[in-house]
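[Meeting: bench + compute handoff]

Bench side (C.D.) handed over the final construct sequence. Compute side (W.E.) agreed to return the predicted structure before the next meeting so the bench team could plan truncations. Sequence as handed over:
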Amino acid sequence: MYTLQIEHGIKDFAMWKTAFDRDPVNRVASGVLAHRVGRPVDDPRYVVVELDFDSLDQAEALLAKLQQKVWDSPAAPALNGAPITRIVESAG
């Protein structure tokens, strides 16, 4: 299994969550098996998202879609700064 980890600052959690729930990249059709959203206990203006996939290709494709359709779009007012991303492979 592969997990796309995304961390980024946000301006407002409720606004960000509404946009996330609208699912502009169609997570299920992109191969996402499960997702988790977390927030650091000491920073309410930051989110950590984990998206699980069967294949590395699916994770890379969704990352590219996020970069092109979401993060580079002026229609993403809840985001604050550039995201930090990585794809990790399950090791155990």
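W.E. noted at the follow-up: Residues 56-71 form the longest helix (16 residues). C.D. will use this when planning the next construct.
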